[in-house]
Design brief:
This is proline dehydrogenase. It is built from twelve helices and eight strands. With 304 residues, it is α/β, with parallel strands linked by helices.
Length: 304
């Protein structure tokens, strides 16, 4: 049943029709728990609340269904406006983005041009931009563009997914760049030809890449709500004399808040991924697919 539900939500997340309906009817039936709002100001207010109890953030203007150059430019402008709002408000947050929202599926050159505009603005503010990794079909081109951007920018990082077979080789390839990586398990539905189908294998590979990146001396963002992974990282860092300045824990807005606050009390840097915008449906569906507990929360909210 859990597998069927996961597949259903992942398929819905890719539906253009479902996405259009979601935009029409807004953040209802529990989505507001995981999405900070539809406007920049709502997202800034959410980050300010996180900052007040010691958590930092990364803001993401949601957008995955971009089919024209005009839409890609609009999404780029929203990223720049988000950086402007962070600087003006004084909140502690960087920016996350998906390159498909910047026109990656339309034109590689268009996407790179938009990325450069965003990175230039972030550089002006001394801020940092994280490229979210998407599905396997976008993996290689995302890494290629990242390597190109790193020739001119130090304020950009990318995401590596533990469930892909290729991940260890990708990390070896990125080692020379001293890449700032967010390490995740992976949230897309992928073929067993390219990804580990068993959770235990994904967990094992996740631990390996955490160890590898930390021992390589590069900054590491461990993005997980899995307490076993978090405790593994804490123990590994202590045993190997790795400073807390070299890594941070990242979690999603609205999930495991008590754990987030506990880690802050223990002295760890905790960054919360705060999504906002009208194009929230695909993101929301992946959150439901990841954890059955999220589904029950939404169902209870609907009946209320």
């Amino acid at each position: 049943m859990e597998l069927l539900m996961r597949n259903m939500f992942q398929s819905l997340g890719k539906s253009r029709t479902a996405n259009r309906l979601a935009k029409k009817y807004g953040l209802r039936f529990g989505a507001a728990r995981f999405v900070a709002g539809e406007t920049i100001q709502q997202s800034i207010d959410a980050v300010r609340g996180l900052n007040q109890d010691g958590r930092v953030a990364t803001l993401d203007h949601l957008g995955e269904f971009v089919f024209s150059e005009a839409e890609a430019l609009e999404s780029t402008d929203m990223c720049i406006q988000t950086l402007d709002a962070i600087a003006k408000s004084g909140v502690t947050s960087n920016l996350s983005l998906k390159m498909t929202s910047l026109g990656l599926d339309i034109s590689r050159d268009l996407c790179v041009s938009n990325m450069r505009r965003i990175l230039d603005r972030a550089l002006m503010y001394g801020n940092f931009v994280r490229i979210d990794m998407e599905d396997y079909a976008h993996c290689q081109i995302s890494l290629d563009i990242y390597r190109e951007l790193r020739k001119d920018y130090d304020n950009v990082g990318i995401v590596i997914q533990a469930y892909l077979f290729r991940t260890m080789q990708d990390m070896d390839d990125l080692h020379e760049l001293g890449a700032n990586l967010r390490l995740v398990k992976g949230a897309y539905k992928e073929s067993p030809q390219v990804a580990f189908p068993e959770k235990s294998a994904v967990d094992d590979n996740y631990k390996k890449i955490i160890q590898k990146h930390l021992l390589n001396g590069h900054y590491t963002a461990i993005a997980s709500h899995d307490e076993a992974i978090i405790n593994f990282t804490k123990d590994f860092a202590k045993k190997n004399g790795i400073s807390g300045e070299q890594f941070e824990f990242q979690m999603l807005y609205g999930i495991c808040e008590e754990l987030q606050k506990q880690l802050v009390k223990e002295g760890y840097r905790v960054r919360i991924y705060v999504p906002y915008g009208v194009d929230w449906f695909g993101y929301f569906m992946r959150r439901l697919a990841e954890r059955p507990a999220n589904v029950w929360f939404v169902l209870k909210n609907m009946f209320k």
